[in-house]
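subagent[fold] <- orchestrator: predict structure for attached chain, return tokens only, no commentary.
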Amino acid sequence: MCLQLFVFSELPPPFSFLKNKELTFVYCLHKALMVECWCHSICSSPTLADQIAPSFSLRSLVSSGKCILERIKHWLIIDIFLFLCISVWSIGESPPEETEKHDDSQRSTLFIEKPQSGSVSVGGNITFIAKVEAKDLLRKPNVKWFKGKWMDLASKAGKHLQLKESFERHTKIHTFEMHIIQAKENYAGNYRCEVSYKDKFDSCSFDLEVTESSQAAPSIDIRSAFKRSGDGQDDAGELDFSGLLKRREIKQQEEEPEVDVWELLKNANPSEYEKIAFQYGITDLRGMLKRLKRMRREVKKSAAFSKGLDPAYQVDKGGKVRFMVELADPTVELKWYKNGQEIRPSAKYIFEHKGNQRILFINNCTMTDDARYYVTAGDEKCSTELFVRDPPILVTKGLEDTNTYVGERVELSCEVSEDDANVKWFKNGVELTNEPKSRYRIKVEGKKHTLIIEEAAKNDNATYSVMTTGGQSEAKLSVDLRPLKISLALEDQTVRLGQEIHLKCEISENVEGKWYKNGQLIEASDRVKLYHKGRIHRFIIASAAVDDEGEYMFVPDAYNINIPCKVHVVDPPKLHLDGLGENNTVTVVAGTKLRLEIPITGEPTPKVMWSKGDKWITDSGRIRAETYSDSSCLVIDTAEREDSGPFRITLKNEAGEDSALINIKVVDVPDPPQAPNVTEVGEDWCVMTWEPPANDGGSPILGYFIERKKKQSSRWMRLNFELCKETTFEPKKMIEGVAYEVRVFAVNAIGTSKPSMPSKSFVPLAVTSPPTLLAVDSVTDTSVTMKWRPPDHIGAAGLDGYVVEYCFEGSISTDQSEELMEPPFNLEADEWIVANPELTDKTKFTINGLPTGSKILVRVKAVNAAGESEPRYHPQPILVKEVIEPPKIRLPRHLKQTYTRRVGETVNLVIPFQVRTKNTDRKTLNTHFSYATASYLLFLYVNLGYWTAFVNILHPEGKSHDKASGIIHSYLGTKIGHYHMSSQSN
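subagent[fold] -> orchestrator:
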């Protein structure tokens, strides 16, 4: 039977046993174990175990690492947690059922073949194989090999360690191999293979044992070479784990468990190496680890040495050590070496020969002698290690308890047995370091070690200890406060608003402190100044405010006392009008309620009075005043326009008086404007104007809305949806000939006014188009006759007549217009004269009274109910002067024939001719004449007989005389052959 022991991390609590009552105990292991176990030994008596074994059972939980002891009925198992041993049967085979259960619990999720533990001799080769089935895997799994807990072997692959992997396509199995070549002794240990794929993970541990040759090296207690010696007590030289465990009283024990320092260092965290080495007196920790590895190597049998050196030697500093070898052949020459350097005889190194024995003495050993030594005999070599141990450092004079005051210098001193020894200081178990920024300073003077605290504080109250390799000492430091005396207390103050508040106190100790106001901590700021100089503390506020009134208190740090005082700030009454508008104006809409709250301050509470003009406002009515401790309200239930005006508020108390005027402005919609006037009317438009309303309601007019309707309709239509800023508007898109009315609304920030009265009804009428074909009919020395045609478009308003206007050339611009072929007259420079004060319905008009030789411009306008049309201009200036031209007879072709008539018959001949002459002379000869200025028609009514007719046309100026004469000869009874008409000039 093989018995395995496990270290418990948790034991059940103490208990009391009741007869015939079952109990259950839980033992927690350091790691989970898969065991099927039975308790075989409760104490040293197998017979007793046989008696009580059936009275309980033990099972283990693999997942949580717990062993559970159940169904305890026997009172002899009271101390079970002190003797419990978990054993696994190894003799014989388990029942088939149990074996199958064990295999199922160990079944892997990824591995189909796990690496198995193995052993190999030094210098041999070994291979570990792990297989993973890839049937359900989409890619190759990730495999890692570890030694111990954390060493990844992928970084160690090389000559002695090779990692290989392969894949069989037919079987779809990944094979991972770890080859160890020429195994060394330090290759032994626990290994682990981990495989992972996505969220799956599996791990397998196995051991490698490296065996040595049949001739093992002589055993040696390695721990004894490194453990510190005691101080002469019975437990001298033994390891003490009390520094790693909870601090407790040191008790004398007859037996203590042997502790393997190598195992302790191997299992400890690297951060604890130095602490363990210091505790067990190991001065060369790194050297120890290296040497332990070398000492495990196989020691081969030597032919030159019948007896070699021991694996290691130990000597105290200043002592003497003896190395001895025994030669098989005494004639062989020996050489001694230290760390590879040959040793020569001297006072320190003494060589001695005794038969086959060769001895080396090293006197007065120092730390430099701590090295590796070996001796050579020909090609043979024998080596050993020498460990020089410092003697344990003893505390010859321990620490003493100290009482001091805050701020004092503290020195805790002790003396040790050696100069400049390695000493560690602790505060409540926490090591203190001698860093530049640390409050603690460590001073060493030979054997005296001192811990210095320059200025002790309350948090320095602690237990201080000093530890050496051979002892320790501790002492308590108590830091108290000095008794505090108040030299100058704070005084109550009464200050006016705006004055300085200066609080001053003096105490016996130079300590910091804090200021409080009404229990609240006060911090220094730009307004609040806190001063501390020596034992005097000051509190200054340059300008006192009302909020600064209260109870002040100074509390020294670390003392349970306070220095109080009261500050009373006298505040004259004051009105706070910051929330009001410019010039303290408050605007309210008519018809709404006004509640104007004015914050007030003053101590004591001032009396508030409101007034408007000479009338005081009471606390009742539509307009009333309400007064509170920190404010006063003016209330107007329904504001009216008459409420506008200044209101005065007055505050009075014993400290002073304050008053202010507050302008109440009641705003309302504006009054309606006056009825608009229609100044112009067009075909479908008109121009309307109006005056702003007399009262804008207390708010500026923003614009106007315009509406119109047909006179016979009652539905008004808004013409603009954006406010009209001007007082002139032009409605459009009206129907010609239909009567309309318009009205206006005024708009301000409050709203829209009532509509104005409607305007007088108007009918949109269009003026006619300009007259057409304006031309000169005739010109005399004093008159000009113009003619024209009616307009092309007259419209619904009809045509009332024409207006003829003229002006003299030079009174207007005479530039020609390319488009209209008319001059673009400058109407401002025109001096048009109306020729006909009354309208004429004729299309011809004579302008009389014109100066001879002048040039005039003429225009004609058509007039109807809508007004005057655009004028029609004559394109050229007209010269006022009659033109005389010689007469021209234009004989028609039919008159060139021969007429035959009887005597007595009337002959009517129409002979056209053209002549321009003055109208001063007119002569007719038994003939009727009809003529015009531009052309004349001559009608001859002749009774056939014997006569001659002459027609004379004289020019008015008489400059030329043209005579047209026609002669008709008539003979009775004789046929008239022809007539002859001629024209002659006189």
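orchestrator: received. Logging for downstream: The CA atoms of residues 121 and 185 lie 8 Å apart. Helices lie at 46-52, 80-83, 96-105, 222-226, 261-267, 273-279, 285-295.
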